[in-house]
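Project outcomes to date are best conveyed with an example. Our students and postdoctoral researchers have been running inverse folding experiments weekly, and each run begins with a structure described purely in tokens. The record below, which covers 104 residues, was selected by the lab manager from last quarter's runs and is presented without edits.
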């Protein structure tokens, strides 16, 4: 009896885990471009279906303060999704990072 309940629980967990949209989530390479006053994160979609991406962009200013944003964007086949952070004079960006997680 206990064994059959455990087997049923494992089967129910497997069905829920593999049928949810989170099962299709994956990390993608996000290109990062850093200019003195802007950091850009880009994700290119080379798949034949629309991706829904969460792009996080972080820039480190010259005073050490981190500036970041997160954008949830649909990226259609053959296109590019973007996310930006900006700063203003007299602070400039000295480093920048971009990360992206996508699902379909």
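After processing, the design step wrote out the following sequence:
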């Amino acid at each position: 009896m206990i064994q059959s309940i455990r087997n049923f629980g494992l089967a129910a967990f497997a069905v829920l885990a593999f049928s949810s949209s989170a099962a299709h989530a994956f990390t993608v390479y996000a290109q990062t471009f850093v200019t003195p006053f802007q950091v850009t994160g880009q994700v290119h979609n080379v798949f034949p279906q629309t991706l829904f991406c969460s792009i996080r962009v972080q820039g480190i200013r010259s005073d050490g303060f981190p500036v970041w944003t997160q954008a949830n964007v649909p990226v259609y086949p053959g296109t590019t999704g973007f996310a930006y952070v900006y700063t203003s004079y007299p602070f400039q960006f000295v480093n920048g990072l971009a990360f992206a997680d996508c699902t379909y």
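Helices lie at 2-19. The longest strand covers residues 51-61. The training component of this project remains on track.
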